[in-house]
Amino acid sequence: SSPLPSHSPRRRPDYIPNRISDPNYVRIFDTTLRDGEQSPGATLTSKEKLDIARQLAKLGVDIIEAGFPAASKDDFEAVKTIAETVGNTVDENGYVPVICGLSRCNKKDIETAWEAVKYAKRPRIHTFIATSDIHLKYKLKKSKEEVIEIARNMVRFARSLRCEDVEFSPEDAGRSEREYLYEILGEVIKAGATTLNIPDTVGITLPSEFGQLIADIKTNTRGIQNVISSTHCQNDLGLSTANTLSGAHSGARQVEVTINGIGERAGNASLEEVRSENLLKCYEFFVMAIKCRGDHVLGGLFTGIDTRHIVMTSKMVEEYTGMQTQPHKAIDGMLKHKGTYEIMSPEEIGLQRSNEAGIVLGKLSGRHALRDRLNELGYVLDDGQLSNLFWRFKAVAEQKKRVTDADLIALVSDEVFQP
Ligand code: KIV
Fold it and tell me: Which of 49, 61, 360, 371 could form a disulfide with 30 if both were Cys (CB 3.0 to 4.6 A apart)?
């Protein structure tokens, strides 16, 4: 049987803020425009944010976290514009994404977030406060009881603004004391929270631990069956996708992710370190893992993402943020028989099978791959010609890592070979 997954998308269930209408549906919460933009150097203009939001809607994202409205006037305006436009554009299937604004747990932030998102058909306020001992002691300088009181009052306040959809995050949940988490989460549910997001803020947990954390929260928190549980996994140990999958396996039905895995990191790491550290929350990986293995291993989980738009969205974010993604690896095996190494097809994520579109020739590419690509470009070589060219191609590949179509054409033109 073919290892290739089916292309037929499953129907997206109706959106109801505090109810899961299909128990296997995993909502995609995209925070590229909020957490992603917090990557050093990844600042986006309002126009770029709007373009990305439109593209995210096309991709089929359920919730777009458009920004942190209290952070700056520009961010406020960008979120408001996205709420007014993308948040009111119903697609051909009758779907419109939720537009979300982040806020700390204080009235001013929450009011500002509401002022920005309220124009959307489906507005959401996402409010957070830290719950780990270390954050309570050094950052908030507050007792556990005080933090519960603030969280409860602020979720109630957000609901009082007539916002039906309120998400709460206990920041640094990965290092928070369990009993305390169950207690604060139970209190915010009573106050009206509709989604509980569990952030592994410092990326410290292992997949088995994170899965267990979600499972324990689901077992021990009062009222949790009435709300959506969510994951938000950082990549400090390179485990964010694995942790997110583990969380979904344990019952989380929303996952927070960014395009190309861009995202925030505390501290003063250099840009290079931050970039490599923060290839986090990659939903290209998460969504494709769910698509490839969801049915068999993960109990039938599925998302509403139209994977054919992944590459386009990734390229747009790469260009606008200036943060490069990892180039593709050599894929010669794929050319002999698609199933040999390929568990998903390039077309499925919106790539064409062409060199420019992303199938990169490099120093590990073989003669077969080189001949194929040259044929696609219109150059038909006999064995002797190919042999000559192959060694020159290898020399270029040693220096350049990625050999583009332009390089190949230059190489062929140097020889007598003409199309
Ligand atoms: O990493 C984190 O804890 C966050 C929260 C605001 C969700 O970004």
Answer: 61
